[in-house]
């Protein structure tokens, strides 16, 4: 069975990447048929900010030093179990499976159907910074092992050209390209992917404007949010034409413009799929999360 590898990435920080990740997860788990025997695996690769780790309350867990991104991906801490047999099938008994943290109940699933590899706040990958002296072969081995027991792996990436962001994107078949609709996000993200297209081929990149305001606004001769949407489509047109990677602009078609700003997420992030009394905008956001998962599941 195929394992989907996904990187939730942004050029800059602060666009709601971790919140988007956790809201796509329940739809991904459903569409990829996540089970205890073949779970969906979440990996917190943003080792400076540790968004998923904090959201799941794993930042103070007693096992965290060894069972974390730093503990698996760097020789100073690594206790990575190795799969010797490429035909390994009995994943439920494998050491790696047992040591991931079960978080399925957070999403309304069997607790073991969704598992997380958190980051350990404050533990650097190298001697002087979080990114020096790290070795990507550990990431490649982690990816290789996941194919034996996971239905999918979602990396909550770091940002820009940080090393763990590059690892996440290199491992991924699908990149969730998150951005706010502001000028600096639009143009900066486009410049990043102009350069990225020269380095990587064959990726499936889903363009996701996130936390999009819906109030109409006129600034000079420009009407928002219409102008911002037009600019994003225009910015990515060259990338689409180049065809080094496949760009999905589904969330910018027709009257759709990414994922709208959700007021409750400004105060407390959560899983919208499990929330009660959804507002009209929240219902739209929920459909966008479902659509992102469907693009991954169907392509």
By oligomeric state, this entry counts as: single chain
Approximately how much helix is present in the residues?
Answer: 25-40%
Output the number of helix runs: 9
Give me the count of strands: 10
Please state roughly what percent of the residues sit in beta strands, choosing from under 5%, 5-15%, 15-25%, 25-35%, 35-45% or over 45%.
Answer: 15-25%
Give a structural overview.
The chain is α/β, with parallel strands linked by helices. Helices cover 34% and strands 16% of the residues. It is built from nine helices and ten strands. The protein has helices at 17-31, 51-55, 69-73, 95-99, 136-146, 163-171, 183-199, 226-242, 280-298; strands at residues 4-10, 40-44, 101-102, 114-117, 152-159, 174-179, 204-209, 217-219, 222-224, 246-248. Strand 8 and strand 9 form a beta hairpin. Helix 1 (17-31) crosses helix 9 (280-298). The radius of gyration is 19 Å and the shape is globular.
